[in-house]
Design a protein that fits this description.
This protein is mostly helical and about 400 residues long. The protein is built from twelve helices and four strands; from the N terminus they run ααααββααααααββαα. α3 packs across α8 (about 200-210) and α10 packs across α12. It starts with a helix and ends in an 18-residue tail after the last helix. Keywords: Heme, Iron, Metal-binding, Oxidoreductase, Peroxidase, Signal.
Length: about 400
Protein backbone atom coordinates (compact mmCIF):
# COMPACT_ATOMS: atom_id res chain seq x y z
CA UNK A 1 0.00 0.00 0.00
CA UNK A 2 1.36 3.42 -0.94
CA UNK A 3 1.97 6.18 1.56
CA UNK A 4 -0.96 8.09 0.12
CA UNK A 5 -3.25 5.12 0.54
CA UNK A 6 -2.05 4.61 4.10
CA UNK A 7 -2.81 8.21 4.96
CA UNK A 8 -6.23 7.92 3.33
CA UNK A 9 -7.04 4.74 5.23
CA UNK A 10 -5.91 6.37 8.47
CA UNK A 11 -8.14 9.41 7.88
CA UNK A 12 -11.13 7.17 7.08
CA UNK A 13 -10.53 5.18 10.26
CA UNK A 14 -10.33 8.38 12.33
CA UNK A 15 -13.54 9.60 10.70
CA UNK A 16 -15.38 6.35 11.45
CA UNK A 17 -14.09 6.36 15.02
CA UNK A 18 -15.26 9.94 15.44
CA UNK A 19 -18.73 9.07 14.11
CA UNK A 20 -18.88 6.02 16.35
CA UNK A 21 -17.93 8.03 19.43
CA UNK A 22 -20.48 10.69 18.53
CA UNK A 23 -23.19 8.04 18.25
CA UNK A 24 -22.21 6.51 21.58
CA UNK A 25 -22.13 9.87 23.30
CA UNK A 26 -25.20 11.38 21.62
CA UNK A 27 -27.41 10.66 24.61
CA UNK A 28 -24.90 12.37 26.89
CA UNK A 29 -24.64 15.31 24.51
CA UNK A 30 -28.40 15.83 24.24
CA UNK A 31 -29.58 14.59 27.64
CA UNK A 32 -26.67 14.98 30.08
CA UNK A 33 -28.85 15.14 33.19
CA UNK A 34 -30.86 12.06 32.24
CA UNK A 35 -27.69 10.16 31.41
CA UNK A 36 -25.97 11.13 34.65
CA UNK A 37 -28.99 10.49 36.89
CA UNK A 38 -30.26 7.26 35.33
CA UNK A 39 -27.07 5.69 33.99
CA UNK A 40 -27.68 2.01 33.34
CA UNK A 41 -31.42 2.38 34.04
CA UNK A 42 -32.79 4.53 31.23
CA UNK A 43 -31.44 4.81 27.69
CA UNK A 44 -33.54 7.27 25.72
CA UNK A 45 -32.32 5.71 22.47
CA UNK A 46 -33.22 2.19 23.55
CA UNK A 47 -36.45 2.44 25.50
CA UNK A 48 -38.20 -0.41 27.28
CA UNK A 49 -41.31 -1.78 25.62
CA UNK A 50 -44.37 -0.32 27.29
CA UNK A 51 -46.55 0.42 24.26
CA UNK A 52 -46.58 -2.94 22.49
CA UNK A 53 -46.65 -5.56 25.21
CA UNK A 54 -48.49 -8.74 24.30
CA UNK A 55 -51.68 -9.75 26.06
CA UNK A 56 -53.93 -12.80 25.74
CA UNK A 57 -56.63 -12.71 23.08
CA UNK A 58 -59.29 -13.34 25.74
CA UNK A 59 -58.44 -10.06 27.51
CA UNK A 60 -60.81 -7.58 25.90
CA UNK A 61 -61.30 -4.78 28.42
CA UNK A 62 -59.19 -1.62 28.13
CA UNK A 63 -59.78 1.76 29.79
CA UNK A 64 -56.96 3.60 27.99
CA UNK A 65 -59.41 5.96 26.24
CA UNK A 66 -57.63 9.06 24.88
CA UNK A 67 -54.20 8.46 26.44
CA UNK A 68 -52.55 5.54 24.62
CA UNK A 69 -49.37 4.16 26.16
CA UNK A 70 -46.14 5.26 24.47
CA UNK A 71 -42.63 4.15 25.35
CA UNK A 72 -41.60 7.78 25.86
CA UNK A 73 -44.58 8.73 27.98
CA UNK A 74 -44.40 5.65 30.20
CA UNK A 75 -40.66 6.19 30.69
CA UNK A 76 -41.35 9.68 31.99
CA UNK A 77 -44.16 8.23 34.09
CA UNK A 78 -41.76 5.71 35.59
CA UNK A 79 -39.41 8.49 36.71
CA UNK A 80 -42.29 10.49 38.18
CA UNK A 81 -43.69 7.38 39.90
CA UNK A 82 -40.44 6.72 41.76
CA UNK A 83 -39.32 10.32 42.37
CA UNK A 84 -39.54 11.53 45.98
CA UNK A 85 -39.26 15.09 44.69
CA UNK A 86 -43.00 14.82 44.05
CA UNK A 87 -43.61 15.12 47.80
CA UNK A 88 -43.31 18.35 49.73
CA UNK A 89 -40.45 17.12 51.94
CA UNK A 90 -38.76 14.80 49.40
CA UNK A 91 -39.48 11.63 51.39
CA UNK A 92 -42.46 10.02 49.61
CA UNK A 93 -43.04 8.85 46.06
CA UNK A 94 -45.93 6.97 44.47
CA UNK A 95 -43.77 3.86 44.83
CA UNK A 96 -43.55 4.32 48.59
CA UNK A 97 -47.12 3.02 48.85
CA UNK A 98 -47.27 0.99 45.62
CA UNK A 99 -44.30 -1.38 45.81
CA UNK A 100 -43.29 -3.60 42.91
CA UNK A 101 -42.36 -6.52 45.20
CA UNK A 102 -45.93 -6.46 46.52
CA UNK A 103 -47.73 -6.31 43.16
CA UNK A 104 -47.61 -2.51 43.51
CA UNK A 105 -49.44 -2.57 46.82
CA UNK A 106 -48.37 -1.93 50.41
CA UNK A 107 -47.71 -4.31 53.29
CA UNK A 108 -48.74 -1.63 55.79
CA UNK A 109 -52.40 -1.24 56.75
CA UNK A 110 -52.12 2.54 56.40
CA UNK A 111 -49.35 3.97 54.26
CA UNK A 112 -47.11 6.71 55.60
CA UNK A 113 -47.37 10.13 53.95
CA UNK A 114 -45.63 13.43 54.58
CA UNK A 115 -48.20 14.45 57.20
CA UNK A 116 -49.35 11.22 58.83
CA UNK A 117 -50.92 8.01 57.59
CA UNK A 118 -53.50 7.41 54.89
CA UNK A 119 -57.18 6.95 55.65
CA UNK A 120 -57.52 3.82 53.50
CA UNK A 121 -55.19 0.95 52.68
CA UNK A 122 -53.21 1.45 49.44
CA UNK A 123 -54.74 -0.44 46.53
CA UNK A 124 -52.67 -2.74 44.30
CA UNK A 125 -52.18 -1.41 40.77
CA UNK A 126 -51.91 -4.67 38.81
CA UNK A 127 -53.73 -4.59 35.44
CA UNK A 128 -55.37 -1.21 36.10
CA UNK A 129 -55.71 -0.82 32.35
CA UNK A 130 -57.76 -3.97 31.87
CA UNK A 131 -60.78 -3.06 33.91
CA UNK A 132 -64.46 -2.75 33.20
CA UNK A 133 -64.56 -0.10 35.94
CA UNK A 134 -62.92 3.12 34.77
CA UNK A 135 -63.21 4.98 38.09
CA UNK A 136 -60.45 4.92 40.68
CA UNK A 137 -59.87 5.10 44.44
CA UNK A 138 -61.83 2.94 46.87
CA UNK A 139 -64.77 5.34 46.72
CA UNK A 140 -64.44 5.86 42.93
CA UNK A 141 -64.10 9.62 43.36
CA UNK A 142 -61.74 9.85 40.36
CA UNK A 143 -63.49 9.44 37.02
CA UNK A 144 -60.29 8.36 35.24
CA UNK A 145 -56.81 7.10 36.03
CA UNK A 146 -55.47 10.44 34.75
CA UNK A 147 -57.46 12.30 37.39
CA UNK A 148 -56.38 9.82 40.05
CA UNK A 149 -52.70 10.19 39.18
CA UNK A 150 -52.26 13.66 40.69
CA UNK A 151 -54.71 13.38 43.58
CA UNK A 152 -52.21 11.79 46.02
CA UNK A 153 -49.77 14.57 45.15
CA UNK A 154 -52.41 17.15 46.04
CA UNK A 155 -53.37 15.38 49.27
CA UNK A 156 -52.18 17.04 52.49
CA UNK A 157 -51.45 13.72 54.21
CA UNK A 158 -49.97 11.78 51.32
CA UNK A 159 -47.58 14.01 49.35
CA UNK A 160 -48.33 17.48 50.65
CA UNK A 161 -49.10 19.79 47.73
CA UNK A 162 -52.73 20.37 48.72
CA UNK A 163 -52.67 24.17 48.65
CA UNK A 164 -54.24 24.04 52.14
CA UNK A 165 -53.04 23.64 55.73
CA UNK A 166 -49.84 25.52 54.94
CA UNK A 167 -49.01 23.32 51.92
CA UNK A 168 -47.83 24.59 48.62
CA UNK A 169 -50.10 23.88 45.65
CA UNK A 170 -49.58 21.79 42.55
CA UNK A 171 -48.11 24.95 41.01
CA UNK A 172 -45.45 24.86 43.74
CA UNK A 173 -44.55 21.32 42.72
CA UNK A 174 -44.44 22.24 39.03
CA UNK A 175 -42.05 25.11 39.74
CA UNK A 176 -39.92 22.70 41.77
CA UNK A 177 -39.77 20.12 38.98
CA UNK A 178 -39.13 22.84 36.41
CA UNK A 179 -35.82 23.49 38.17
CA UNK A 180 -34.63 19.88 37.94
CA UNK A 181 -32.38 19.24 34.96
CA UNK A 182 -33.55 15.75 34.07
CA UNK A 183 -37.18 16.89 33.98
CA UNK A 184 -36.35 19.69 31.56
CA UNK A 185 -34.82 17.09 29.27
CA UNK A 186 -37.49 14.43 29.75
CA UNK A 187 -40.46 16.73 29.20
CA UNK A 188 -38.86 18.12 26.06
CA UNK A 189 -38.12 14.56 24.92
CA UNK A 190 -41.71 13.43 25.45
CA UNK A 191 -43.74 16.56 24.72
CA UNK A 192 -41.38 18.67 22.61
CA UNK A 193 -41.25 21.38 25.28
CA UNK A 194 -39.65 21.80 28.71
CA UNK A 195 -42.93 23.18 30.03
CA UNK A 196 -44.42 21.08 32.84
CA UNK A 197 -48.16 21.06 33.54
CA UNK A 198 -50.40 18.98 35.79
CA UNK A 199 -52.03 17.46 32.72
CA UNK A 200 -48.68 16.28 31.38
CA UNK A 201 -47.87 14.76 34.77
CA UNK A 202 -51.22 12.97 34.76
CA UNK A 203 -50.82 11.62 31.24
CA UNK A 204 -47.33 10.21 31.87
CA UNK A 205 -48.13 8.69 35.26
CA UNK A 206 -51.30 7.08 33.90
CA UNK A 207 -49.37 5.59 30.98
CA UNK A 208 -46.83 4.02 33.31
CA UNK A 209 -49.48 2.61 35.65
CA UNK A 210 -51.50 1.20 32.75
CA UNK A 211 -48.37 -0.47 31.42
CA UNK A 212 -48.09 -2.61 34.58
CA UNK A 213 -49.60 -5.92 33.52
CA UNK A 214 -49.54 -9.54 34.62
CA UNK A 215 -50.64 -12.35 32.29
CA UNK A 216 -48.10 -15.12 32.94
CA UNK A 217 -50.00 -16.98 35.65
CA UNK A 218 -50.97 -20.63 35.86
CA UNK A 219 -54.52 -19.48 35.18
CA UNK A 220 -53.43 -17.89 31.88
CA UNK A 221 -51.65 -21.06 30.78
CA UNK A 222 -54.81 -23.04 31.45
CA UNK A 223 -57.18 -20.49 29.92
CA UNK A 224 -55.17 -20.44 26.69
CA UNK A 225 -55.70 -24.20 26.33
CA UNK A 226 -59.52 -24.18 26.46
CA UNK A 227 -62.44 -22.42 24.83
CA UNK A 228 -63.87 -20.83 27.95
CA UNK A 229 -63.51 -20.64 31.72
CA UNK A 230 -66.17 -23.28 32.37
CA UNK A 231 -64.06 -26.04 30.87
CA UNK A 232 -61.59 -27.94 33.07
CA UNK A 233 -58.10 -26.47 32.73
CA UNK A 234 -55.68 -29.26 31.74
CA UNK A 235 -52.81 -27.79 33.80
CA UNK A 236 -54.90 -27.46 36.98
CA UNK A 237 -55.06 -29.93 39.81
CA UNK A 238 -58.46 -31.37 40.68
CA UNK A 239 -58.55 -29.03 43.68
CA UNK A 240 -57.79 -25.97 41.54
CA UNK A 241 -60.50 -26.88 39.02
CA UNK A 242 -62.93 -27.39 41.89
CA UNK A 243 -62.01 -23.94 43.23
CA UNK A 244 -62.52 -22.43 39.76
CA UNK A 245 -65.97 -24.00 39.51
CA UNK A 246 -66.92 -22.68 42.95
CA UNK A 247 -65.67 -19.22 41.97
CA UNK A 248 -67.68 -19.17 38.75
CA UNK A 249 -70.98 -20.82 39.64
CA UNK A 250 -73.72 -18.83 41.42
CA UNK A 251 -75.00 -20.15 44.74
CA UNK A 252 -78.52 -21.40 45.40
CA UNK A 253 -80.05 -19.96 48.58
CA UNK A 254 -83.04 -20.91 50.67
CA UNK A 255 -85.59 -18.41 51.98
CA UNK A 256 -83.27 -17.42 54.83
CA UNK A 257 -80.24 -16.62 52.68
CA UNK A 258 -78.46 -19.88 53.46
CA UNK A 259 -76.65 -21.56 50.57
CA UNK A 260 -77.98 -25.02 49.90
CA UNK A 261 -76.15 -25.87 46.67
CA UNK A 262 -74.29 -24.36 43.71
CA UNK A 263 -71.07 -22.40 43.75
CA UNK A 264 -69.97 -19.30 45.67
CA UNK A 265 -70.75 -16.63 43.09
CA UNK A 266 -67.42 -14.77 43.31
CA UNK A 267 -67.50 -14.12 39.56
CA UNK A 268 -70.65 -12.07 40.01
CA UNK A 269 -68.45 -9.20 41.16
CA UNK A 270 -64.97 -10.32 39.98
CA UNK A 271 -65.57 -11.68 36.50
CA UNK A 272 -62.81 -13.57 34.69
CA UNK A 273 -60.56 -13.30 32.81
CA UNK A 274 -59.67 -9.83 34.10
CA UNK A 275 -60.98 -10.51 37.62
CA UNK A 276 -61.63 -6.81 38.07
CA UNK A 277 -64.58 -5.36 39.96
CA UNK A 278 -68.01 -5.02 38.39
CA UNK A 279 -68.78 -1.28 37.92
CA UNK A 280 -72.22 -1.73 39.48
CA UNK A 281 -70.84 -3.13 42.72
CA UNK A 282 -71.83 -1.45 45.97
CA UNK A 283 -70.44 -1.78 49.49
CA UNK A 284 -69.10 -5.25 50.33
CA UNK A 285 -70.04 -5.24 53.99
CA UNK A 286 -66.72 -3.85 55.27
CA UNK A 287 -67.62 -0.48 56.79
CA UNK A 288 -64.75 0.25 59.17
CA UNK A 289 -62.43 3.27 58.96
CA UNK A 290 -58.75 3.59 59.75
CA UNK A 291 -58.78 6.93 61.55
CA UNK A 292 -61.39 8.49 63.81
CA UNK A 293 -64.91 7.29 64.40
CA UNK A 294 -67.89 6.48 62.20
CA UNK A 295 -68.37 4.15 59.26
CA UNK A 296 -67.30 4.06 55.61
CA UNK A 297 -69.99 2.68 53.32
CA UNK A 298 -68.77 4.38 50.14
CA UNK A 299 -66.09 1.85 49.23
CA UNK A 300 -67.28 0.20 46.01
CA UNK A 301 -64.01 -0.20 44.09
CA UNK A 302 -61.56 -3.10 44.40
CA UNK A 303 -58.32 -4.02 42.65
CA UNK A 304 -58.10 -7.02 40.36
CA UNK A 305 -57.84 -10.36 42.13
CA UNK A 306 -54.83 -11.13 39.97
CA UNK A 307 -51.62 -11.22 42.04
CA UNK A 308 -53.60 -10.95 45.25
CA UNK A 309 -50.90 -13.26 46.62
CA UNK A 310 -47.25 -13.89 45.78
CA UNK A 311 -46.05 -17.06 44.08
CA UNK A 312 -45.49 -18.64 47.49
CA UNK A 313 -49.12 -17.99 48.41
CA UNK A 314 -48.51 -15.20 50.93
CA UNK A 315 -50.68 -12.10 50.47
CA UNK A 316 -49.28 -8.96 48.89
CA UNK A 317 -50.23 -7.05 52.00
CA UNK A 318 -53.46 -6.83 54.00
CA UNK A 319 -56.79 -6.76 52.16
CA UNK A 320 -59.87 -4.51 52.02
CA UNK A 321 -59.85 -0.73 52.35
CA UNK A 322 -59.33 -1.15 56.09
CA UNK A 323 -56.46 -3.60 55.64
CA UNK A 324 -57.85 -5.67 58.51
CA UNK A 325 -57.94 -8.99 56.62
CA UNK A 326 -54.52 -10.60 56.51
CA UNK A 327 -55.31 -14.01 55.03
CA UNK A 328 -57.47 -15.40 52.24
CA UNK A 329 -59.31 -17.39 54.91
CA UNK A 330 -60.29 -14.06 56.53
CA UNK A 331 -61.69 -12.75 53.25
CA UNK A 332 -63.61 -15.92 52.42
CA UNK A 333 -64.95 -16.03 55.96
CA UNK A 334 -66.24 -12.47 55.61
CA UNK A 335 -68.20 -13.29 52.46
CA UNK A 336 -69.30 -16.59 53.97
CA UNK A 337 -71.31 -14.81 56.66
CA UNK A 338 -72.44 -11.31 55.72
CA UNK A 339 -73.66 -9.15 58.56
CA UNK A 340 -76.19 -6.50 57.61
CA UNK A 341 -75.10 -3.51 59.68
CA UNK A 342 -78.05 -1.24 60.52
CA UNK A 343 -76.43 1.90 59.08
CA UNK A 344 -75.07 0.31 55.91
CA UNK A 345 -77.50 1.71 53.36
CA UNK A 346 -75.16 0.92 50.47
CA UNK A 347 -74.69 -2.84 50.90
CA UNK A 348 -74.58 -4.70 47.59
CA UNK A 349 -77.87 -6.59 47.09
CA UNK A 350 -75.98 -9.61 45.74
CA UNK A 351 -74.80 -10.17 49.30
CA UNK A 352 -78.34 -10.16 50.73
CA UNK A 353 -80.32 -12.99 49.10
CA UNK A 354 -84.00 -12.87 50.08
CA UNK A 355 -83.23 -9.92 52.35
CA UNK A 356 -80.77 -11.79 54.56
CA UNK A 357 -77.00 -11.49 54.79
CA UNK A 358 -75.69 -14.41 52.76
CA UNK A 359 -74.49 -17.52 54.54
CA UNK A 360 -72.43 -19.61 52.15
CA UNK A 361 -72.28 -22.59 54.49
CA UNK A 362 -68.72 -23.37 53.37
CA UNK A 363 -66.90 -26.60 54.05
CA UNK A 364 -63.17 -26.76 54.72
CA UNK A 365 -62.74 -28.56 51.39
CA UNK A 366 -64.45 -25.72 49.53
CA UNK A 367 -62.40 -23.06 51.31
CA UNK A 368 -59.15 -24.83 50.46
CA UNK A 369 -60.20 -25.33 46.84
CA UNK A 370 -61.12 -21.65 46.42
CA UNK A 371 -57.78 -20.58 47.90
CA UNK A 372 -55.96 -22.97 45.57
CA UNK A 373 -57.70 -21.38 42.58
CA UNK A 374 -57.00 -17.79 43.67
CA UNK A 375 -53.31 -18.68 43.91
CA UNK A 376 -53.33 -19.65 40.22
CA UNK A 377 -54.02 -15.99 39.33
CA UNK A 378 -50.48 -14.95 40.31
CA UNK A 379 -47.75 -14.29 37.77
CA UNK A 380 -43.99 -13.82 38.16
CA UNK A 381 -42.63 -11.24 35.72
CA UNK A 382 -44.37 -8.21 37.18
CA UNK A 383 -42.41 -8.55 40.43
CA UNK A 384 -38.99 -8.37 38.81
CA UNK A 385 -39.22 -6.73 35.37
CA UNK A 386 -36.75 -3.79 35.41
CA UNK A 387 -38.99 -1.59 33.24
CA UNK A 388 -41.32 -1.24 36.25
CA UNK A 389 -38.52 -0.84 38.79
CA UNK A 390 -36.99 2.28 40.26
CA UNK A 391 -34.73 4.16 37.84
CA UNK A 392 -33.02 5.87 40.78
CA UNK A 393 -31.30 2.75 42.18
Amino acid sequence: MTKTNLVGAFLIAISLLSCSNHDNNSTTDLYPNVTATFSGKIDLYNLSNYANQSKPAYITKDNTAGNPITDKGATLGRVLFYDKNLSSNNTISCASCHIQANAFGDTEIASTGVNGTTTRHAMRLINSRFANETKFFWDERAATLETQASEPIKNHIEMGFSGTSGDGSISTLIAKLQGIGYYKELFKYVYGSEEITENKLQLALAQFVRSIQSFDSKYDTGRAAVQNDNQAFPNFTAQENQGKNLFLAPPVFDANGIRTSGGLGCAGCHAPPEFDIDPNTKNNGVIGILNGTGIDISNTKAPSLRDLVKSDGTPNGPMMHTGNFTTLQNVIGHYGNINIAPRNTNLDPRLTPNGFGQQLNLTATEVNALIAFIKTLTGTNVYTDPKWSSPFK
